[in-house]
Amino acid sequence: MAEWLGVTIGELEWFADLKALGYKRPLARLSHYHYRILAKQSGNIRLIEAPKSRQKVLQRQILSEILEKIPPHPAAHGFLKGRSIKTFVTPHVGQRVVLRMDLRDYFPKLAGARIQTFFRTLGYPEAVADLLGGICTNAVPRDAWQEADWDVDPIRLREARQLYSRSHLPQGAPTSPALANLCSYRADCRLVGIARSVGATYTRYADDLAFSGDEILERRIERFAIHVTAILNDEGFSVNHRKTRIMRQGVRQYLAGLVANRHLNMIRTDYDRLKATLTNCVRLGAESQNRAGHPEFWLHLEGHVAFVEMINPARGKRLRAIYQQIQWE
Question: Is the pTM value of this prediction over 0.85?
Answer without folding.
Answer: yes
